[in-house]
Structures are given as C-alpha cells and as structure tokens.
Amino acid sequence: MSNAYIDQFPAEAKVIRAAFYSSFFALALGGVFGIIQTLHRTGYYRFIDSADYYTVLTAHGVFLVISFTIFFLVGIFTWAITTSLDRGVEDLRFTWGWYGLMAVGITLTGVAILAGFTDATDISASVLFTFYAPLQAHPLFYLGLVLFVVGTWFAGVDWFRSWWAWKAENPDERIPLPAFMVLTTMLMWYIATLGVAAAILLFLLPWSLGLIESVNPLLTRTLFWFFGHPVVYFWLMPAYMMWYVLLPKISGGKLFSDPLARVVFVLFLILSVPTGIHHQYLDPGIAEGFKFIAMTNTMFLLLPSLLTAFTVVASMEHGARQRGGEGYLGWLKALPWRDPVFAGMALAGLMFAAAGFSGMINAGMNINYLVHNTFWVVGHFHLTVGTAVALTFMAVTYWFLPQVTGKQLWSRSVALGQVVLWFVGMTFMSNAMHRGGLLGIPRRTAEPQYDGFEFEAAVGSVAELDAQIALGGVLLTLSLVLFFANVVGTALNGRSDDLPDNSYAGTLSGPEDAPQILDNLKLWTAIAVVLVIFAYTFPLLSIIDRGGLFGPELVELPLSTLDLESISALALAVEQSTIATLETTADTATAVIAGVIP
Amino acid sequence: MSHATDESTQIQDPDQPTDSDQVREIGHDEFDPVGALALIGLYFLILVFLWFFMYFVEFLGNDPTVVSGIVSVVTGGVGLA
Amino acid sequence: MNIHAYEKLWLVAAMLLIVGFIATITYGSVALGITMVGDQQDTVEPTELADDDRFDDPRVEQVGENEYEAYVVAQTFSFQPNPIEVPEDSDVTFYVTSRDVIHSFSLVGTNVNTMVIPGEVAEMTVEFDDPAEYGVVCNEYCGPGHHDMEGEVHVVSEDEFDLTELEADGPDEVETGDEISVDVTTENRQLEAIETTITLEIGDETLTEDVTIEGGETLETTFTVDSATLGEGDHDWTVTVDDHTDSGTVTVADDLEDDGGDDDE
Fold first, then answer.
1. Of A61, A90, A218, C209, which one has the greatest count of Cβ atoms within 10 A?
2. Do A249 and A364 belong together in one domain?
3. Where in the sequence does UniProt note compositional bias of the Acidic residues kind (chain C) (predicted)?
4. CATH code for the structural domain at C46-156
5. A335 touches chain B (CB under 8 A)
C-alpha cells in the first residue's frame, strides 16, 4: 500500500484530476491553433482565410493563458493546501462548485470565440486575449470570463477557509511554505482581478449589450493592464512554487532557504500590480512621469525573480552534492537529468533565465520604442508562460499524475523525450521571434509580408527566421503529441500500489529562521493596496479627466462575421459615412454662403 | 509541514533508480553553494553585457528615435561647439 | 533571519543591476533627450475628425526652417496621408490619431513607434538626417484586414522636396478659332519662396512661365492657346510644376451644339 496523494485525499484527488484534464483539453486546443498560426504566419501552409487567423489567435491565447494555466494551477494549489496543512477541503461541494463555475465560464467564452469560425451565428469574439475596445466581442465572451474569474475567487476562498480552520487548531505554527505561497498568490490575484472585473462589468459587458453607448478605450485598456501584468505572475507563481517545493526534492536535496522563499512571495504580492502601465509606455494620453513610476516598480519586481534564481540553483546544487557531485560546475553532472520531472523543470528554469533578460528589456521605458508590439514580445512570453510555466507544468504532471490517479506513469522515456523536444522547439521558435522583433516585424498579424517594404536583417534573413519558427512550431506540436500520449496512457493504466509518497522538499534553512512578520498577510495586503492606490489613482483620474468615464463617441467594430463580406460591408459603411460627411459639409457650406451673400 | 521534514529525503521510488544515488547527507552548515554562486555570477555578467549591447547598439543604433524638440536643439548646439 | 553570505552578495548585485537599468533609461531620457509619447496633446472626437483643426486635412506642414508637422490619421485599414513625404535634415513632429479602433503607427527599422488610440493624439518628434524610405506598419490588431494596413514615410533630398499644390482647370470644349485658356493655381505651402517653371503641354505646343512663389502664397497663372493652331479634335493637355502634374482634355469643334457635348456633371 502506497501513501500517494490519492490514498490520503481521494475526494480532493478527483477534483484535481478534473482540473488537470480541463487544463490538458485547453492545452490540446491551444496547441492545434498554435501550429495553424505558425504555419500561416510564416507562409509555409495557409489553409484558412487570413481574416480567420485572428479567431485562431484569440483561441490560442485565451485557451492557453487562461484555461490551460489557471485550471492547472487551481489543481496544484489544491494539492499544496491539502498536503501542507494535512487536511482535506472544508466543504467538497463548495470545491466542486468553484470548479464548475470556472468550467461553465470558460465554456461560454470558448463557444463565443469558436463561433467566429462559422457564419451560422452572429456570435464571435475575435478580439484577442487583450479585447481592447472599440473591438467588441459578443456578450457571452465577457460573461464567460467573469464567471471564470469569479470561480477562481471562490477557489481562493476555499483555500483560505482551509487555512483559517488549520490556524484555529494550530495557533502557534508557522504557515507551511506551500500554503503560504498559495495564500500570497491569491491575495495578489484578488487585487489584480479588480481591474479586469471593473473593465468588464462597468464598461465592456454593458457596452456589448447596448446598455451604454460608448467606452473610453484608454480607460478600459489601462484597467486591462492593471490585471494583465499581475496575471503573468498568477501563471508564474505556481511554477515558482514547484521550483521551490518540488524541484529540490527531485534533485535529491532540500530547499536552500525557506525565509527567502517567503520574502520572494511577499515581494510578488506587493509589487505585481502597480506595474501594469509598463505595457502602455507608448500609449498617448498617459504622462511620461506615470510611465517612469511604473518602470521603477517593474524593475524592483526583478528582485524576487533574481533571488529565486539563486535559491533554486543552490537547492539543486545541494541535491547534486548529496548525490556525490563535485567542483564548481561539475556537480551539474550529478543531477538526475534522466528524470523527466527534473529535466523538464530545470530546462524550464534555464529558459526562464533567458526570458528574464528579454523581460528586463521590456521593463525599460524608452527602449520600449524598439520592441513594443513587435515579435520580440511574442518571443518573450513564449519563454515565460510558454516555457517556464508550461514546461514546468508538463514536467510536474509526470509527478502529479500518479499522485492523483493512483496509476504509474505510462512512459518515463517518452516523458523525457517530450520535455527535451519542448525545450529544443522553443529555443528555435523564441530565438527567431526575438530577432524578428528587432527587425520591426510586428506581432499579431496574419501576414507579416508587406507590399511597400521589406524587413531587413543584418544577420541571417527573414526566410531563415520563418524557417526556425516553423521548425520550432512543428517540434512543439510533436512534443504535445507525446505529452498527451503519456496522459492518456497513464489514464488507461491499472491502479498501482507502488507509488512514491506524496511529499515535498524539506528545507536547509527552515521557517524557524524566517521573521514572524513575514506571515502577517494582513500587513502585506495592506501595503500592496496602498502601493496600487499610489500607482494607479492619478493615472486613472487623469485618463477619465481627459477622455471621460464613458469616452468619446466611437465607431464600434463588432467582429461578428469575419469574412470578406463583412470587410466590404465595413468599407462600404466607411465610404457611406464619408460621403455623408462630405454632403453635410457641402450643405453647411452652401448654407453659410447663402447666409453671407444677400 | 509533517510531510515536508520527515519524508522528503527518503527516496523510495522504484521507478527512479537514479534518485537513490544519494551518497551523503549534507546539512545546513556544511553546505556552501559555490556552484550556485558561480552560475549566478556568470548570469550576472551575461545580463550586464546583453543590457549594454541591447541599449547602446540595438536601440540607439536603430535611429531615428523620438526626441523632444528642445533637447534636439541643445544637442545640435553642442554638436556645433 | 539567516541569510547566507553568497545570497547577500547576490542581493547586492541584483540591486546594482536594477539601479543600473533605471540609470541607463534615465540617461537616455535626460542626456539623449529620448521622450516618451505622453499626454501633451488635447483629446479629439474620433467621429468628428473632419471638424478638428489638426486632423481635418491629414498633411505635412512646415512650421520652421527645418521643422515640419505631420498630421496622420490611422483607420481600418490605412494611414492618411500616404506616403508621408518630409525632407532630409529635418525635425518632424508626428501627430497621430485614430478614426475608429486602436492602431499603431510604427516606422519599420526605427525607434519611431506609438500606439494610436481613438480620442487620444500621439505626439512624436523625430530627426531625419539622410534621404530614406521607411515602411509604416500597424502593429496592434485592428480587425480582419489588420495585415493589409501599411504605409510609407519618404525622407527625400532637399532638392526633391516641396510642399507645392498644383491645380489646373481648362475648358471642355471650344469652338475652332476661340482661345483655350488653362487656369493654373500653384500653392507653395513651404515657408521659403520657390523659383520654378510652370509648363503647359498641349498638342505640339509647349508654353512655359518662370515664376517665384513666396512662402505660403498662392499664384494664379493663365495660359492661353489659339485653338485654330491645334485643329479640330480632342487634345490632351498637361500642366507641370516640378514633379507635380495636372491634366485635362479639350475638344475643339467647328460647330458647337448648344445642348450637346456637355458630358461634365
């Protein structure tokens, strides 16, 4: 008889399984749309209309960065809370409730997006992951997102309830590290999602329903980025958690420093949100001073990641040395590279080191002129969420699947091949994307080939970059196929009694070394709120003062049917409005002349 | 908590033969992460080099750049002097 | 709190890195004068650009000896004016706004790059040195035709550059023997005077007139040709000033019917 998670918490294991499978389903869909895009953009194989590319892109973005990541992380957060507090959830119906709400929400959103492929309905939502007004999606899109986010709010409530109950029974104990990470991450998430909740509930949803005439595009955009930057930490924090609590154990060692891990998560809680304006360095209507403040906050947000780099590497080194590793760098050979869980996480961490660099460039204010909205940015986040997060999630899946299914992993060799293939594929793809961005190749476009000019590469050529991207995309797709083979193969395996125990890494320097104040979540939350108020009050007031709460009159662009007819209809509408304007002008002129000349 | 400290070093996964390769136990005081320091030092140097390269070669070499009208006059004056 | 000496060292190094990054950016702003797109410009009504002084006529304007202003409108899926023509060795301030959704205005291969948000006006001053042709892309998704949205900025040599507007008007028909008169309106929108030649070519005839047009002035010229020398039939004519042309056709007929031939609207 083993002592796996499913043996300890059979009911919770079922919820986590459901969350994982939802996550993997989204990953499969997102992956299919990913390869379609890759081949379309690079021009290797185009079987969809270029206008439909943006529906594909919306689906790729939303399914991967909303459904795949968040479903997976609610799974491992549930694992972290129950395992580290050693207690089941307080009310299983509540747990299934928030899972159900998330599932319903993302289904509505997904349907609204996918309906864009057919002319059978007027429903569509090809507004991309950022849904900037005046682009307008069907109300279902916004409604689904709201339900999904509310689901995550309830998930947080669930975990807080566990903590409160545990604290009542263990008043003098330190919060176990995994639980501490979940709680700080969720507090950050509550603050962050206020932005997107305001954007959708106050403005975009009523506007899409026709209840309000117009919105202020700069305001809704700013509220989006209020949420849009911290959301990347929402994806990243679970990966960090895995690097802190699982990777040291898999490496054969212990976490180097529990106190610093706490410091890192506290810094993320207080600094993640007041930085969103760094996505708007090139926005007109926001003063340079606000942008500079956002940059300063963003640069200091590098600190927790840089600290993490040291702690995680030191923890791996501890494992390697316990396994007999020697020398300054020779110990690297003593690490369990043939273990897919380790190899996947270590390679993800390596890619994140590179991503850290491109992130530092993105954080810089004036250098943003060079990279803003170019392919560079796409390269950056395919390293962060696309590798640091996604590859870590896939790697830890090989540890979690046996834990929550009670079945042996189908194939460790296939798993190892999968993580290596992802690393290689993403190396080709993201490197080429970064370089392409420096040539000025834009992101988010179906056909980055123009009539009037060409992109000039000092080294290599655009064709070579396209080839690397397409090759990378194919390797990543293969990697996904291997991943799903393993997930399905494992699900089809029989129940095993011979599974590793459910446990996580011990610490070299434990919570007893961490000042008590680090566990004061109220204090850190209050500081976080104050910083957000400082960073956002004046920019938001200024934006509202300039453009009005509901903005100027706008030309709405509902993306209901994405075919050539709608484009020509649009062109016709523009033409007609122009003619109408001209006629009005002519009438006015005639009237004026008539008035002047007696 | 309980899982963390008690069981983490017991590696008993039969499927992971490499993990049982632990040859010694290294405690907090004996462990000196020189390897981590070496790697992170290397990373630091790479970051500094790439930052300067990106800012002064890629960015400033990517003329023209958005400048304020006033300062351009000032730098023009400096150029003449 | 128990922090290892190496970690303290790394903490200091990390802080140095962060401060160094901020210092570099500040150096760019203060010493090199790199300015962010900001809130310098007043807002605008996207649906009423025709009534806005800045954007009623998307154009390039000369405002100082080497200073120009370009008023650009982005809309699905084009930029106006296109191409934008400016001279070498000039300071050009771009004012960019959107008629509909969010776009961008980004000169490929340069650091000239801004979001274009309806209701807001992006202002960017750029120094152009040598003649060059830049592509302009919209790098923010703006709808199903986003990938077709492009433009060009031409930085042309001093000799080639002007802000001259030419308009010529002639009769559609004249009776043989009558005079054909072509009215030419030439506007010099630059600040300095230009010396140039206005040329009318009609049939085998070429008429020229050397003119000087003061900065900001408009010159009216009339060319007169005897229709008899051209003979009966249709005659194409072209008026040329530097690189600008305007043209038309005149029909010379023996007997003009009162009701016929008026195919002009």
1. A218
2. yes
3. 254-265
4. 2.60.40.420
5. no
